[in-house]
Model the fold of this input.
Amino acid sequence: MLSFLPSPIILLINCILISLNVIIIATPMMLLGIIKFCLPFDVVTVLIEKTNYHLYRTWVFFNRCIIRLTNNVKWHISGDNIPKTKKSCIVISNHLSWLDILFMGCVFKGNIPTTKFFMKHSLIYIPFAGLACYALGMPFLRRYPKEKLLKNPKLRTKDIETTKAACKRLIKFPATLINFVEGSRYTKEKAKKAKSPYKYLLPPKAASLGVAISEIGQEIEYLFDVTYFYPDNQKKAFVDMMKGRIKNIYVNVDILKIDESLKGNYLEDKQFKHDFTMYVRSLWERKDALLERMLNDYESEKNKK
Done:
């Protein structure tokens, strides 16, 4: 609606609106987090979880409104229809930009429980948003360099312990656990450094997903596989959104079956760990081919104009 305005003006509008949305929603979340810490009773925790759920949905709703207000977005959504559920779910996805987090709410539109992301521990220090995510029970993962892991091997299990704790919360309080399986946002430079065998993806890291499904596979209603592609905004998608320049958004959502082949002990069963890792790699091969098709569809549509 306002995408006709000059980019600096849209940038200012988005900075104000998005900041206000974060501050207004994050402040009560942080206060509730303090109350939950001081009064760790089940009744209090249940009330706070329900309140946070509605606060989170309000944040998602206003994000959608802000994006619609300042960007002329054309959505291209394919794949399976998204069912409405109140039970815990897992979403896996490729990771292109911070926009992936905002667009997750636009794609699922409240049909699934509150989304919780595996986040880098450094993000906890973002004003308001970081502490709000902590209060929501987001799992924060630390990425240690190889040198540090060699000096202190015990650090290897830290992320596993965090994943297990997050899974236990999903059993008690239904939520949707979002896992960007690549562990970082995709860039050609990162792909080259990681010697990725894929054209449009980083190599997947199966451990967190494997542990999550091992821990709570029986409790999960749906396992969603999401693929994002922003053909007009491949370098700085978030900045482009802030300036009102997001145009085409391609999203594919597939519902994956959680059958017996995905249920096992990822940490202790070496054969299951190998099989599960190969399964995730096969998903990434399909996702890479899907991104190729999305690019071809975009170029075909562009050539017709």
